[in-house]
């Protein structure tokens, strides 16, 4: 067999192997595609969340923006706190306790997303005896609303940490119905904070000095207390009043 024949035979074998490899690769991709289609049919919300997270990771950490809606119930006041819309945190009070989400500029939460319907969905607070809380309602939107990957067909009560997707937007929901009053700050900490804030004790005392009789020593910025003799020209009641006013001023400046 000549060298030309050997070379031609080698080329034919190589071409056959390449064709066989390409055929198997196509079959593998078709199998993967069929698996993907079945997964998408049953878990479309989850897969789209994964794809969205992949897009965010490619765009870099600097582009990440954690969107959220927080439902608040506080002493009879019911409202939402959210950074949806203009990416600025804001408090939304609605008299009927219904917050419409959509592309329409008249919506309470207006979002410029082409995958959103004009009036896509709503978050509504319902004060039911058995299950009071915030509910998500879909207005039969074109692309649907999803909670934790499941499409919403009827109103659903939202829970702390729920993941909501409407259109091309995904955000977290938080439910705040608990509040507590913290104890007062210790006096020594108030003193430390006042010194760090540039609050001068002597200036404060002179500003809040009570009226004193003519025979008493004038209370000015240059006044120094006589610690050795224990005499400063003030009665115990006046001293108490001065300290009360000082600490009231410090507390007010910290709020």
Count of alpha/pi helices? 4
Compute the gyration radius: what is it?
A: 35 Å
Main structural class: alpha+beta
Question: Strands of the biggest beta sheet: in what spatial order?
Answer: 3-2-1-12-11-8-9
Note the main sheet: 7 strands, mixed
Arithmetic mean of pLDDT: 75
CATH class of the domain at 68-176: Mainly Beta
Distance between the termini: 98 Å
Uncertain residue segments: 58-64, 201-230
CATH architecture of the domain at 68-176: Sandwich
The amount of beta strand, in percent, is: 15-25%
Summarize the helix and strand pattern as letters. Answer: HEEEEEEEEEEEEHHH
CATH level-3 fold name of the domain at 68-176: Tumour Suppressor Smad4
What does this structure look like?
Among the domains are: 13-51; 68-176, Sandwich (Tumour Suppressor Smad4). With 255 residues, the chain is an alpha+beta fold. The protein contains 4 helices and 12 strands. Mean pLDDT is 75; it is low at 58-64 and 201-230.
């Amino acid at each position: 067999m000549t060298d030309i024949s050997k070379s031609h035979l080698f080329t034919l074998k190589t071409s056959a192997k390449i064709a066989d490899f390409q055929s198997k690769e196509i079959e593998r991709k078709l199998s993967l595609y069929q698996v993907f289609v079945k997964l998408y049919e049953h878990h479309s919300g989850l897969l789209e969340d994964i794809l969205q997270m992949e897009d965010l990771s490619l765009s870099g950490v600097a582009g990440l923006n954690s969107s959220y809606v927080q439902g608040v119930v506080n002493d009879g006041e019911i409202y939402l706190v959210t950074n949806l819309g203009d990416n600025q945190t804001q408090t939304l009070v609605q008299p009927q306790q219904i917050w419409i989400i959509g592309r329409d500029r008249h919506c309470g939460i207006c979002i410029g997303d082409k995958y959103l319907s004009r009036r896509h969905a709503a978050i509504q607070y319902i004060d039911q005896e058995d299950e009071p809380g915030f509910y998500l309602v879909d207005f039969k939107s074109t692309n649907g609303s999803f909670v934790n990957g499941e499409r919403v067909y009827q109103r659903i009560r939202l829970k702390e940490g729920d993941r909501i997707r409407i259109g091309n937007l995904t955000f977290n929901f938080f439910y705040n119905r608990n509040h507590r009053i913290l104890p007062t700050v210790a006096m020594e900490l108030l003193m430390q904070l006042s010194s760090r804030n540039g609050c001068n004790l002597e200036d404060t005392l002179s500003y809040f000095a009570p009226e004193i009789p003519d025979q008493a020593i004038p209370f000015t910025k240059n006044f120094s207390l006589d610690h050795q003799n224990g005499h400063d020209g003030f009665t115990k009641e006046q001293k108490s009043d001065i300290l009360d006013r000082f600490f009231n001023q410090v507390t007010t400046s910290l709020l």
